[in-house]
From TrEMBL:
It comes from Mesitornis unicolor. This is BTB/POZ domain-containing protein KCTD17. Coiled coil: none annotated. InterPro entries: BTB/POZ_dom, SKP1/BTB/POZ_sf, T1-type_BTB. It comes from the Eukaryota. GO terms for molecular function: cullin family protein binding. Transmembrane segments: none annotated. GO terms for biological process: positive regulation of cilium assembly; proteasome-mediated ubiquitin-dependent protein catabolic process; protein homooligomerization. GO terms for cellular component: Cul3-RING ubiquitin ligase complex; cytoplasm. Residues 28-129 form the BTB domain.
Amino acid sequence: MEGMEEMQGAVGLRCTWGTQAPAGTQAKWVRLNVGGTVFLTTRQTLCREQKSFLCRLCQGEELQSDRDETGAYLIDRDPTYFGPILNFLRHGKLVLDKDMAEEGVLEEAEFYNIGPLIRIIKDRLEEKNFTVTQVPPKHVYRVLQCQEEELTQMVSTMSDGWRFEQLVNIGSSYNYGSEDQTEFLCVVSKELYSSSNGLSSEPSHKAKVRP
């Protein structure tokens, strides 16, 4: 019955918007002017959360708020995020458009002090952050410079997880006696999986060059 009652009220709103409410309904219906956008709802909806700013506002508890020419309470907040706030109070579910930022709704939920909604959004953000940090893995590359005689030792002592990618001959840079020492650049890589707090276990720079 309650959902039908609110739906009937919404239909009546389209017909009587901007007119004086019928006698006996002013105590039930509440106008809110949020950042220049007017919302019409019931005191019952606003008081679903007894400790919220909206409940205290419509009950006149400790709060003083100016009203516009239609008698709507003036609230200097972004109306974009107020729709999901009001709908949550109506049916207890968080419904967002695909382009609406959850962080914006969270900020408004904290301002209006709607505890259950705050917890829902924080849980969703934590779950989203956890999922993002698991995939995909990062690839970190290192470039190691060495001489020909050092190649075998370098490969055998390579740390766990590092994989050989490419060997580049950069010519002879040194001459010891009658033998030239060929210099190589050895490119290695490693996959890094971010932890749940978003921090990687290895440095994020692309390469290290050995002098």
